[in-house]
Specification:
The protein has 87 residues and is of the alpha+beta class. The chain contains two helices and two strands; from the N terminus they run H-E-E-H.
């Protein structure tokens, strides 16, 4: 369940953050008004835009979690079944 949650959460985060098909970026262009002229000026804004490297890293983390769950299977609990009838 954790592997599925990590994988689907990362895909949803990547999609809703813009689905950037390049490298992850920590800044991007932004538009602001100039102080003196009042004209629009393109500036660099600090923001996180996940790219394909983020997506594949999260998918690989999900695969590792799924593989780890195979290494440590659930142990049956003792006394959890119905009592058996003896003669």
């Amino acid at each position: 369940m954790a592997a599925l949650t990590v994988t689907l959460g990362a895909i949803a985060f990547w999609l809703f953050s813009g689905a950037n098909r390049g490298w992850t970026k920590t800044s991007g262009p932004g538009i602001s008004m100039g102080d003196l002229t009042g004209a629009e000026v393109v500036t660099e804004e600090s923001r996180f835009v996940p790219g394909l490297d983020f997506l594949w890293g999260a998918v690989m983390a999900g695969i590792v979690l799924a593989g780890a769950s195979l290494l440590f299977p659930n142990q049956p609990k003792s006394g959890g079944g119905s009592p058996t009838k003896t003669r």
